[in-house]
């Protein structure tokens, strides 16, 4: 090796160390310090546009700009004296000719032997920049900011944003609360007038009689629970047999007046079920929670050690994995796994707050193995390396939730249950992250792990609510001003403080008032007697970057779609104007439409439940996209538009079990893989799920 080569490698080693320090946990970390933790070693690409930093202790640091990730890998390769050619992703919408030109440019400007032998005095930085592949930023997913390890300037930068956002975001929230109170005055006055004139203000509600019946039933159950507790109390000389292994399947494990707590297990126990919490590590190091709902009469919870977060790697078959859940259900009586994912500012508890009508409890009692996933940060932000005040912990948006959180949750459920696939049920933002993740330029391979994707109130296209004044304000301000108003950490953390300190009834009332004002929904079809409970599971911690993706001037509110620009959506509208023309040109346009499709052959079967009166999102437009053949690989196995439903009615309406729940239960069964169906138990309430009904079920599917 020549002296020139040695000097070049030595300089590359120095540059690599500087780049590693820039991407490490702390500024004092060094690649030469064997005792340090959190030292950046290399970047690994989860998708071509989603790199994460691998540290020397095996941990992960969240996504960094693609160019910075390529840079550390190139410098590492140069320092080790080996070639490295970065892979060039092919974003959707670029022609093959454009990509070939890009590859030729990379090859022309890339690292080669002649370059390494150039004079040392030539700028190494400029040659490195030439070696980096060209970037193609999707207009809907702009690059995230790079904050780097803490330094005096970075800390000052963060404190400045924290100070400005603490004041401005609080003022913004106060305006929203005052607006909600002000617009509620006519309703309060009408309610008071009806009371004063001896009329029932609730008489005109859609399910008034059913609400009264349920309220009476709850009072009877509360009284029965209190009576039972008195009988079992030590003062009455009753000794409970704690060694009894038999539990009455239909006997509640909790009861009495509702405590109004943010506790999935408490509400599961009120309907004779129970739940256990698993912790899951994503590929970029976030620790997220996964709830398992089970019947305590037939299942023993996993040991705490088995429920801890494991490796960030996903879909790896570990020979020593215990599969505790699988072992408790023999073949022929196993439960098919179903994963439920919540919506924006909500948590998994949204599926558990409606007593026996809760979708999670309905599916569990029907015979499914129910798992509830929470997205990153949630109620307790946690990362394997980062702390709450580190801005890197909050540098994520909907794409990271889709390509990192969702695969981690799916992987852990499949590992625990031993199945090859699962059923996926999502609401609102949960559908967004899934539709994003399944896109062919994101992470389409997870579609092979999903037997069916049930989308409730699918959030793909924006509804008319996006033009409300306070949302327009967020769209008008620049990204920098958005950070001044709302910071670079959690979005309006004061909401979480109020959640912790306010009594349940007060918080439930204010929560409904504010969110109904923001998102223009009502409790017309809900059971008002448990409305305060419904809001105990929201809001959660979300990043300001995530809300900027939803509401800022660059992404969703501008493009009005999660995977297409406004221009392409307008082109779709133009094509839809003439039905006759569409039919005549169907054959000639089919190949062209396939070229612009979002999904490939990996996409699972999809079922849609669209809320017809939803002003927040436009589910009809997504359904129309599928019906018009723009997604040739998508198989819509079920679709329904419920005209009178608003955004949350698909979960909380009194008749949601009839309109949505039972249909979800049946779709999950009909799309279950044959090998899984042969070892799983019957699903109660589904015609054809028993052995005797297999033939008729097959006939129904063929139709």
UniProtKB/TrEMBL annotation:
One Pfam family in the UniProt entry: Abhydro_lipase
Annotated GO biological process: lipid metabolic process
Domain Partial AB-hydrolase lipase residues, every copy: 264-354
Keyword line: Membrane, Transmembrane, Transmembrane helix
Basic and acidic residues: compositionally biased ranges: 111-130, 580-591
Residue stretches spanning the membrane: 166-189
Annotated stretches, region: Disordered: 110-135, 228-252, 571-591, 683-703
Compositional bias segments (type: Polar residues): 239-249
Cross-referenced InterPro entries: AB_hydrolase_fold, AB_hydrolase_lipase
Family annotation (PANTHER family): LYSOSOMAL ACID LIPASE-RELATED (PTHR11005)
SUPFAM superfamilies in UniProt: alpha/beta-Hydrolases
Keyword Membrane attached: yes
Protein name: Partial AB-hydrolase lipase domain-containing protein
């Amino acid at each position: 090796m020549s002296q020139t080569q040695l000097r070049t490698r030595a300089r590359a080693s120095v540059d690599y160390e500087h780049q590693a320090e820039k991407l490490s946990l702390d500024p004092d970390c060094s690649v030469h310090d064997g005792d340090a933790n959190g030292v950046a070693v290399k970047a690994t690409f989860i998708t071509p546009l989603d790199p994460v930093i691998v540290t020397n202790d095996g941990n992960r640091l969240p996504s960094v700009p693609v160019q910075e990730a390529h840079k550390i890998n190139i410098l590492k390769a140069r320092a080790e004296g080996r070639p490295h050619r970065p892979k060039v992703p092919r974003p959707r919408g670029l022609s093959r000719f454009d990509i070939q030109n890009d590859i030729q440019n990379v090859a022309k400007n890339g690292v080669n032997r002649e370059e390494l032998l150039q004079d040392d005095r030539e700028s190494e930085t400029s040659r490195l920049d030439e070696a980096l592949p060209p970037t193609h930023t999707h207009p809907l997913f702009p690059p995230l900011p790079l904050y780097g390890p803490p330094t005096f300037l970075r800390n000052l930068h963060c404190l400045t944003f924290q100070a400005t956002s603490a004041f401005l975001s609080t003022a913004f929230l106060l305006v929203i609360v005052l607006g909600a109170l002000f617009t509620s005055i006519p309703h309060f006055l009408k309610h008071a007038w009806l009371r004063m004139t001896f009329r029932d203000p609730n008489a005109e509600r859609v399910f008034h009689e059913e609400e009264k019946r349920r309220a009476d039933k709850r009072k009877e159950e509360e009284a029965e629970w209190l009576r039972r507790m008195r009988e079992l109390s030590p003062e009455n000389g009753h000794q409970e047999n704690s060694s009894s292994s038999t539990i009455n399947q239909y006997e509640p494990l909790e009861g009495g007046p509702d405590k109004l707590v943010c506790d999935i297990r408490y509400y599961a126990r009120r309907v004779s079920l129970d739940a256990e919490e698993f912790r899951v590590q994503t590929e970029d190091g976030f620790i997220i929670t996964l709830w398992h709902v089970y019947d305590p009469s037939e299942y023993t919870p996993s040991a705490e050690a088995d429920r801890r977060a494991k490796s960030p790697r996903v879909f790896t078959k570990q020979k020593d994995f215990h599969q505790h859940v699988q072992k408790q259900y023999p073949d022929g009586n196993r439960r098919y796994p179903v994963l439920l994912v919540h919506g924006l500012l909500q948590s998994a508890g949204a599926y558990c707050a409606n007593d026996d009508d809760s979708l999670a409890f309905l599916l569990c009692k029907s015979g499914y193995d129910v798992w509830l996933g929470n997205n990153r940060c949630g109620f307790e932000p946690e990362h394997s390396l980062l702390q709450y005040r580190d801005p890197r912990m909050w540098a994520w948006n909907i794409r990271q939730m889709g390509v990192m959180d969702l695969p981690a949750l799916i992987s852990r459920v499949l590992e625990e249950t031993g199945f090859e696939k699962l059923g996926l049920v999502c609401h609102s933002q949960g559908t967004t992250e899934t539709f994003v993740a399944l896109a062919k330029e994101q992470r389409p391979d997870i579609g092979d792990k999903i037997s069916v994707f049930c989308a409730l109130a699918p959030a793909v296209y924006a509804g008319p609510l996006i033009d409300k004044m306070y949302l327009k304000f967020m769209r008008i301000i620049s990204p920098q001003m958005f950070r001044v108003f709302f910071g670079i950490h959690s979005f309006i953390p004061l909401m979480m403080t109020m959640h912790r300190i306010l009594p349940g009834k007060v918080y439930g009332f204010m929560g409904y008032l504010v969110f109904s004002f923001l998102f223009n929904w009502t409790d017309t079809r809900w059971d008002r007697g448990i409305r305060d409970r419904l809001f105990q599971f929201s809001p959660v911690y979300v990043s300001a970057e995530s809300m900027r993706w939803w509401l800022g001037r660059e992404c969703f509110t501008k493009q009005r779609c999660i995977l297409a620009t406004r221009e392409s959506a307008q082109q779709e509208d133009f094509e839809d104007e003439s039905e006759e023309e569409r039919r005549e040109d169907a054959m000639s346009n089919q190949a062209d439409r396939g070229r612009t499709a979002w999904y490939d052959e990996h996409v699972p079967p999809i079922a849609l439940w669209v809320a017809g009166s939803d002003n927040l999102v436009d589910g009809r437009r997504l359904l129309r996209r599928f019906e018009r053949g723009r997604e040739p690989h998508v198989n819509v196995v079920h679709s329904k538009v419920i005209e009178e439903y608003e955004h949350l009615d698909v979960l909380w309406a009194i008749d949601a079990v009839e309109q949505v729940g039972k249909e979800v239960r049946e779709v999950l069964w009909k799309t279950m893989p044959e090998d899984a169906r042969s070892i799983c138990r019957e699903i109660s309430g589904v015609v054809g799920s028993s052995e005797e009904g297999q033939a008729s079920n097959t006939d129904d599917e063929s139709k």
